[in-house]
Amino acid sequence: MYRSFQNSDKLKKACRDDKPLYDYNGGLVHDIRRKLIHHQVLTVLKFIVSKIERKLKLANFGL
């Protein structure tokens, strides 16, 4: 019933050294860096939007 993940075909396939982690064009490093940058941009945009919303709410109450 229970099959150990260590013996699974997926793990064996993932551990094969067909592709290097870091190739000449960046490969994995480039993907990770791109995802981190996107996450940081989204975080900054959320922060800016929350500040604008707060200012608009205060301005509406002041009228």
Automatic annotation (TrEMBL):
<protein>
    <submittedName>
        <fullName>Uncharacterized protein</fullName>
    </submittedName>
</protein>
